[in-house]
Amino acid sequence: MQALDIAGLSAGYGRYDVIHDISLRVERGEAVALLGPNGAGKTTVLRAIMGMIKQRRGQISVLGTDVSRMPVHLIARGHVALVPEGRRLFLDQSVEDNLRLGGLHLRRDHERTERLLESVFELFPVVERYRSRPATALSGGEQQMVAIGRMMMSDPDLMLLDEPSLGLAPLAIEDMAQALITLRERGRSILLVEQRVDLALQVCDRIYVLSGGRIVEEGNSENVNADGRALIDAYLG
Amino acid sequence: MSTFLARQSPRSRRVTIGMVVLLVAYLASTFGVANGSYGTQSLVLVAAIFAILALSLDLVAGVTGLYSLGHAGLFALGAYSTTLLNSKFGWNLFLLLPLSIAGVGIVGLVLGFLSLRVSGLYFAITTFIFTLVVVVLLSDFSFTGGLQGIAGPVFPDFPPGLAFLGSSVAWCVGLSLLVTIVIIWSIRSSPLYPVLLAIRDAEPFAAAAGVRTSVMKVGIFGLSASLAGLAGWAFSFLGFISPGQFSWTVSVNILVMVILGGINTRLGPIIGAAFVSAFPVVVSIDPFLQEVIFGLIFVVVIVFFPQGFMGLVGSLARRIRARFRPTAVVVEAVEDDASTPIAYAHLAPQEAVSTTRALPAVDEVALAAKNIVFGYNRGVLALNNVDMVVKRGNIHGLIGPNGSGKSTLVNLMSGRMSPNSGTITADGVRIERLRAPARARRGVMRTFQSAVLVRELTAQENVGIGLYSRFPGIAARSPIWPLLMGARRDSRAIAQKSIAALTSVGLSSGWATTRVADVPHGVEQLTQLAAACIAEPSILILDEPLAGLSSGEVEQVSEILRGLKRAGVTVIVVEHQTRFIFEMCDEVTVLAAGELVTTGTAADVRANERVREVYLGQ
Amino acid sequence: MLQVLLSGLSIGAVYGLVAMAFAVVFYVTRVINFATGQLLMVAIMLTAGLSKAGLPDWLSISVGLTASTAAGVVIYFVAVRPVLRFDRFSFAWLVSTLGVAIVLQSAAAIIYGPTSQGFPKLLNRDNLVIGGASITLQELLAIIVAVVAVVGFEIFRRRTLFGKVGMAISSDPEMASAIGARVTAYAVAAFAIGGLLAGAAGVLIGPITYANPYLGDTYGITGFVALMIGGIERPAAAMGGGLVLGVLSVGANTFIGSQASDWFPFVVVVVVLLLAPHGLFASGDALKRLASGIGRRTATLKGAN
């Protein structure tokens, strides 16, 4: 059973769809990248999976559960978690509150919450050090770690990340990539939207290239590395 | 008159004749009311005064997006100032007409200036409080007659020779409404209307087109206030005035009239005003039950018909029209390029191009940003000591990874923000402290990464907004626009230029008349490009013009850029698609993490080690 | 002086409760419920009517408070939710909640008649003399209820998970739903709390004002003015605005003239809005965010890639 199986997904905001007839899958324990130029519809795919777009058609199933008609908050409860573009932390609340809010649907399962919190702190020791600070006091890189931690806290079947490298310093990007690799090694299923091809290839097993709202290329990372630049050229125009 | 009509096209002749017929009918019905029974008169006159108020509110709320709850207060100022200055100081009523219009208008300007420091909901709240304060002041002073109010002045009757016209007050109110209708409808048919909608829905776009949006908002509010003053002046002749007639519920009632009838429509506010004022008279039941029904109508209309009466009519009409219109309009195929050459040049008269831009000195600097430092907060610098020099007539690429500061630099060059330190010069003039509209007027135009246009206007109307700064006095002439020969000529010129600009970016006339809400993303991007090109900028900044475009449309944009280059325009392009950049650009600047990496020709940049490292990720 | 302070605080507590009722609803939903004053009136009228019919005071009061709470929820479902579903950023609720206000007020006038009726005296009989200033127990109760409400709300907001989710919804509703928060449930709760606070204000002021269908209008406006003075962003700030307004109004009555409290609040609010457009106790800029949210509307609708 796939962590994510999308078939024939179209979605958009007005009379015209932004993405057309998208089919993609993420196997369990696999990390998959979605690449494409700005405006190709990558964020729309993530928002559609998360249920944040009302206008969507097609099948989206997460570990066999059909989520294509579920409201956002139910999708969020253990099925899918999102690190949105720009992180969108709850800035006036503390780092720890942000993390615990990520595990909202587990609030009756204290033990699991604490375990998840431990695993976040283990992955990002710096986050533990700042746990009682307000989120707004953290640097961009640290905030990104909190956002990833918040995503981990709901123990989701599928993790979605929207351009997590955006606005981070090179060192912070490296740390974040390592964290994603660790998550993948722990068997988490990840769908990563990225601008930085190197990062996507470093973290992910397979990639899809999206252009003009359609999937135009698909392949696995080794091929891309070996084959040369065909895919990347397509991506960079 | 006959020569005047003969010079017009058949369509506008029909419109003119229609308007004359309407005018005659209006005057005839005013005559009817003026000779009608007392009951009819008081009903119609009150409705007419509220129609003035509703029309003036729709101008700010519906068209410009400023939900004013201050109109009852402004209305009260008009009525009370007329009454008090006449009865206590004996000022002439006809002198008071311009005085109350101007006086209330000035109050409106001040109120608008103060409340527009904070936008959106806060504007509604501050104006709401203005009404509360006015009413409290009127109630608590004996000078104004306190809660009981005060008898309004008596409007002089017609001289005996004109007595057949009937009640002079009816004519006074009728003509006031007529003037209001003329002003509001003129604005709605002028090129200012799309500009106001842009201020409401797409303020950065309007600013980039050279519209000083905050000045415009205050000005429009002032105009609306002076119309409320006119309503107050006329209202004072209807009998007693007391604070209760101007309470905050009246402000809300006016808003309800606008929404009930149909916000941002020609007739909606008038219909709404007629309905709301006639309701208590026509439905004469227990006054409390009447109020209950009235409140229920508010709720039901807002919940079930948020577009109001005219919205209902409009959607019906659209549905009927849709049956007679082909639905699919297709972007002109790119293969047609050879047959439809990109014709930026025809936007500018040929000679103008040849004199001002034909032979740009190769090394002349068009735009230079020097030592730019900028940080959003006190924290990290988004740009640290960045230089960028763009030569005239070049296509200059600006690339860098996401978050490298490209958009920030574009915003600094186009005037959305000003740098912390450093200088920006365009054509040798320092511009770094100018706001966006001022820079647009100097010929520095821009587009945005994802187009935000006015969705309810057609592509053509959106493009016309780009010409705002090229036609002098649009705002000043708008209240009597259709009556001015030159203005009508300008309207035609704007329409022609807009269509030409759309054609030059490869959009067929089918798209020109389609509402932007109903076009695909690519067409929207091209429309935005046309809106920037139409004003013939000397420097054009494009922020990711390819975002979301198909490969065919990318080819189209390349062709447009070549056309712009031929016309001598300096173009700065921010883009991710490096193949496009390296193919199109004469020079390329690379940023990374807020610092300048290098500037050079495409070949140099491509070969640069650090560029490959930071940008291409190799 | 102390008398002015005590009387001011007690009436200010009532203003503050109404302002808080506005603010709690705004905090979670970004909607101003203009029928808040009428919720106060609902509690007063029902309590008065039932106690006149012979019910014990405590029962009448409970029914009154329950009714205002329930009415708050009904307003959400009838006048607010459908509007926000049509357009999340529209201000149409401004008109629909005012419509509800008119309906409630006129319905009360039909049922109870437009004139004032008796209200149970409750604790208004007994006086307490503190340092030469006298205060009725009812007034003291108002101050206590206000303190409990504001302290309780702040603890609830900052210390409980429920409150923290509320904060999250307040700052970013879409993201809050993406972590599994049921935004609708919180909106319902906010309208219920708003109804309860307004109702409590009604029961506290009832013995002094008696029951009248138009009280909602008076106290709704004064509460709204208090809200603007304190700041709409945080419910605690709204309570602060109420207390400031109460003390200033009583002070104006004492030192300027008996009618001064009619117009003095408006002078205060104008001065405050000129100096601090977001209110005296505002820290954040919720409205600015709301405004930019509206600006962003078109961008989110169409621009998001």
From TrEMBL, chain A:
Highest taxon of source: Bacteria
Keywords: Amino-acid transport, ATP-binding, Nucleotide-binding, Transport
A Gene Ontology biological process term: L-amino acid transport
InterPro entries, sorted: AAA+_ATPase, ABC_transporter-like_ATP-bd, ABC_transporter-like_CS, BCAA_Transport_ATP-bd_LivF, P-loop_NTPase
Keyword set includes Lipid metabolism: no
Xref: Gene3D superfamilies: P-loop containing nucleotide triphosphate hydrolases
SMART domains for the chain: AAA
Occurrences of domain ABC transporter (ranges): 1-237
Record Pfam families: ABC_tran
GO molecular function: ATP binding; ATP hydrolysis activity; branched-chain amino acid transmembrane transporter activity
Family to which the UniProt record says this protein belongs: Belongs to the ABC transporter superfamily.
Full protein name: ABC transporter ATP-binding protein
Lineage: Bacteria, Bacillati, Actinomycetota, Actinomycetes, Micrococcales
UniProtKB/TrEMBL annotation, chain B:
Domain of life: Bacteria
SMART domains per record: AAA (SM00382)
PROSITE patterns named among the record's database cross-references: ABC_TRANSPORTER_2 (PS50893)
Pfam family name, one: BPD_transp_2
Subcellular location: Cell membrane
Bilayer topology term: Multi-pass membrane protein
Span of domain ABC transporter: 367-618
Alphabetic keyword roster: ATP-binding, Cell membrane, Membrane, Nucleotide-binding, Transmembrane, Transmembrane helix, Transport
Gene Ontology MF term list: ATP binding; ATP hydrolysis activity; branched-chain amino acid transmembrane transporter activity
Range of residues in the leader sequence: none
Gene Ontology CC: plasma membrane
Transmembrane segments: 15-36, 43-69, 89-114, 121-143, 163-187, 218-240, 246-263, 270-289, 295-317
Name of the protein in question: ATP-binding cassette domain-containing protein
Automatic annotation (TrEMBL), chain C:
Subcellular location: Cell membrane
Membrane topology, record value: Multi-pass membrane protein
Cellular component aspect of the GO annotation: plasma membrane
Keyword annotations from UniProtKB, A to Z: Amino-acid transport, Cell membrane, Membrane, Transmembrane, Transmembrane helix, Transport
GO BP, sorted A to Z: amino acid transport
Keyword Repressor: no
Main location: membrane
Source domain of life: Bacteria
The keyword Transmembrane appears for this protein: yes
GO molecular function: transmembrane transporter activity
PANTHER family in the cross-refs: ABC TRANSPORTER PERMEASE PROTEIN, BRANCHED-CHAIN AMINO ACID TRANSPORT SYSTEM PERMEASE PROTEIN LIVH
Similarity section: Belongs to the binding-protein-dependent transport system permease family. LivHM subfamily.
Protein name (database record): Branched-chain amino acid ABC transporter permease
Origin species: Lacisediminihabitans profunda
